[in-house]
Specification:
Elements lengths: L1 E5 L4 H10 L5 E6 L7 H10 L6 E5 L5 H11 L3 E4 L8 H4 L1 H21 L4 E7 L23 H20 L3 E6 L2 E2 L8 H11 L2 E4 L6 E2 L2 E2 H12 L21 E6 L5 E2 H12 L4 E4 L15 H7 L7 H16 L2
Parallel strand pairs: 1-2, 1-4, 2-3, 4-5, 5-6, 6-11, 7-10, 8-13
Antiparallel strand pairs: 9-12
Helix pairs in contact: 1-8, 3-5, 5-6, 7-9, 7-11, 9-11
Length: 333
């Protein structure tokens, strides 16, 4: 198949491209290499893909309507994996317009490209952040998510609504994936895994929010990628028997899944895993809860298992150790 991967210089995009390379596909990846975090790391991910003869990269800003339309018209994609976005809950408080451009306008441009290009399946990144102020756990895609507590979360919920509209109006099969705290080699420097490792190895304090009283459904990158690859082949169909009374069901060719490990880990247990992997103790600077943050996440992943037969396999201790080994090698520490 001819595939488009957006955000290919990103953490998940790079991993998906590498996983799909050598499988008989023609893969085109796009990214605007924005400087939200270290562009050199993004370039290193692209360099890591340079030996993949079936992967081609084009620098492109998805907020550029004409450029996106031209790309879809020229290439004739069969499937699209849309991972490009402006990430980060806290950064959305500082630069909200970046989220409108990258998460709303760009998402609309991709939907339009898929519509006019008659793409067979659009798989796109949503986020566990959409669960917002919900206090029922585990989080299920049938839960109401009308109370986001960050602009980032609101844009991701908007992505789901926009995708449903295009599925309904234009029979565009769409699948949204709500990612839960992805970590692992080549990860993002703005996330806890990266920050904790860097600070602990440097003998510097780590910021621990809500005084450590938090938990996350940490999900290793390989498990996320395997879920994406399997979902790509599960193309939603229009259903006469579906109901619109639940948030995750529809008559339209539309699907929505949580993609997480399915077992939350206390933040301080995560810190201890990093300490064990680095062989150094952490200096914890306890902080209050940050605006837009949530105390816990926990994915109900049964729907994903029923659709794909896959359950995440990598536990936190193993995943953290793999990340720390990569970090030491990449940065030479």
């Amino acid at each position: 198949m001819k595939l488009l991967i957006t955000g290919m210089a990103g953490f998940i995009g790079h991993a998906v491209a590498k996983r799909l390379s050598g499988q008989g596909h023609e893969i085109i990846g796009v990214d605007n290499l924005n400087p939200y975090y270290d562009v050199a790391l993004k370039q290193s991910r692209l360099d890591d893909l340079a030996s993949c003869e079936d992967v081609r990269f084009e620098r492109l800003d998805l907020a550029d309507r004409e450029a996106v339309a031209a790309l879809f018209e020229a290439e004739g994609f069969e499937r699209v994996i849309h991972l490009a976005a402006q990430p980060g809950v806290r950064y959305s408080l500082e630069n909200p317009h970046a989220y409108a451009d990258a998460n709303l306008i760009a998402h609309l441009n991709v939907l339009e490209g898929c519509r006019h290009g008659r793409v067979g399946h659009l798989v796109y990144a949503s986020s566990s952040s959409v669960y917002g102020a919900n206090d029922k756990v585990p989080f299920d895609t049938s839960d109401n998510v009308d109370h986001p507590i960050s602009l980032y979360a609101a844009t991701k919920k908007a992505n789901e609504l926009m995708a449903h509209t295009y599925a309904h109006l234009y029979d565009l099969p769409t699948t949204g994936l709500r990612f839960f705290t992805v970590y692992g080699p080549w990860g993002r420097p703005d996330m806890a895994m990266f920050k904790f490792t860097r600070a602990i190895l440097a003998g510097e304090p780590i910021e621990v929010f809500n005084h450590g009283d938090m938990s996350r459904d940490f999900t290793y990158i390989d498990d996320i990628v395997e879920g994406i690859v399997r979902v790509l082949e599960v193309v939603p169909e229009r259903r006469a028997e579906a109901t619109t009374s639940m948030p995750d069901t529809s008559h339209a060719p539309y699907a929505l899944y949580n993609i997480g490990h399915g077992s939350p880990v206390a933040l301080m247990d995560f810190v201890r895993a990093v300490e064990a992997a680095t062989g150094q103790g952490a200096l914890c600077d306890l902080k209050p809860m940050q605006p837009g943050d949530v105390p816990r996440t926990w994915a109900d992943t049964e729907a994903l298992f029923e659709a794909t037969g896959y359950r995440p396999k990598v536990g936190v201790e193993e995943g953290v150790a793999r990340f720390v080994a990569w970090y030491r090698d990449y940065y030479g520490v």
